[in-house]
Amino acid sequence: MLDHTEQSSGDGRLDLGVVGLGYVGLPLVVEAARAGMRVLGFDVKEETVLSTNRGESHLNDLTDDDVGDCVRAGRLEATTDMTRLRECDTVSICVPTPLSKTRDPDISFILSATEAVAANLRPTQLILLESTTYPGTTRDVLLPRLEKTGFRVGKDFFLCFSPERVDPGNRVWLTKNTPKVIGGITPQCLDRGKEFYSRFIDTLVPVSSVEVGEMTKILENTFRAVNIGLVNEIALISDRLGVDVWEVIEAAATKPFGYMKFTPGPGLGGHCIPVDPRYLAWKMRSLNYSTRFIDVASEINAEMPFFVVGKVREALNHARKSVSESRVLILGVAYKSEVDDVRESPAVDILRLLEADGAEVVYHDPFVASLEANGTVWEGATLTDDLLSRVDAAVIVTDHRSVDYEKVLELAPIVVDTRNATQAARRGMLRPNPGGWIVKGYRSPPADTIPTEESCTDE
């Protein structure tokens, strides 16, 4: 634990306080502590605070040693006591910004954190917002609440927006070497923000305002959401045309200019891509503007779990089995490969849709022991030869590298692959059905039922 009289910075204060010790906040406090700062992490979850103070990591991207080394060096502590925000020279807000039940932005965590900061604001503090949100939040929501204290921005305290750019599971681009965008309410705020981040971030990208920073983050993830929506629609089109979409994508990716490869899948997952574009769409509706590309992409991406379940139903029908009498194995429930993050995972919708059809559904995910969504809990199963042999269909939703896809193809009677994870395992021996999704178990119609050119000719 920090001794606040002996371990704090030269003026008797701590260098940094981070509100929220999740996927953004914990890597931030570790990186700052590694750079020599004395950091205090804040979280409303007692267990997160206790595990951090024990030197344990609750994220796959950080090891216990990553956290423990900082704690043992006396540079990292965690607390639930928000009054200690006044001890910190800089405060970074890294709280979740989910969607409400009506799919509108929920900034309640930002509001709670801002009220806590305002209640403990003192002169010269730098306040940073890193949580993704709609353009205008920093100026229109945070600033008025902070100025109610009587302090003036740019003179008594400093306020910036610097969007997080965390990519769970990415071992190359981490907090330190990922370029960091930053905008300030005033030029003085921007200068203070740049001075702070330059102590432990390699590259800073200053922008002219907090709104530019907010919009930059939204653009980054909207770009991905719209392009994923486009390629998902190409997958739907290819399926109807009987064309292998994976082969189409690989062929298009050979073009050395003017094309960027995106791949289809079972739907969008994670905190950012399914959520952030909706923040912008919500904001623009208040300005009487329709975000057409975003809305269409969201609709297409939301359709994909239904499409996947349709392919399972199609494959079972070809095997003369009904969904209601089948046992289906879901391989992977995390929203992406090699992470344990299930936020907004399309696997949840696929599980529910199959169960609604009467199927018995089990799942295996090496990173997710149990899955909870809206009060329903599913327990993960161990992937064994016996399990693969006893299911009627296996659906690859997340392409974790540790899964033996050769074994899956060998033992499961039907395999629906939403990630093209079995491409290498097939080794040219198995070809997917027209469209590219059912890689095992699809029975072509008898030859005498396929129309020939001769039979289609008018006499």
SSE pattern, N- to C-terminal: EHEHHEEHEHEEHEHHHHEHEEEHEHEHE
Tally of DSSP helical segments: 14
CATH first level of the largest domain: which class? Alpha Beta
The tally of strands reads: 15
What's the domain count?
Answer: 2
Structure description:
- This protein has 459 residues and is α/β, with parallel strands linked by helices.
- It folds into two domains: 14-208, Rossmann fold, CATH 3.40.50.720; 227-440, NAD(P)-binding Rossmann-like Domain (Rossmann fold), CATH 3.40.50.720.
- The chain contains 14 helices and 15 strands.
- It has helices at residues 25-34, 46-53, 64-72, 108-119, 137-147, 187-197, 210-241, 245-252, 276-285, 292-318, 346-356, 385-390, 405-411, 423-426, and strands at 14-19, 39-42, 76-79, 88-93, 126-129, 158-161, 180-184, 204-206, 327-331, 360-364, 370-373, 376-379, 393-396, 415-417, 438-440.
- Strands 3-2-1-4-5-6-7-8 form an eight-stranded mixed sheet, with helices on both faces. It has a five-stranded mixed sheet with strand order 10-9-13-14-15, covered by helices on one side.
- It is elongated.
- The model is unreliable at 1-10 and 445-459 (pLDDT under 50).
Features:
alpha/beta; disordered N terminus; Rossmann fold; 2 domains; single chain; elongated; five-stranded mixed β-sheet; about 450 residues; eight-stranded mixed β-sheet
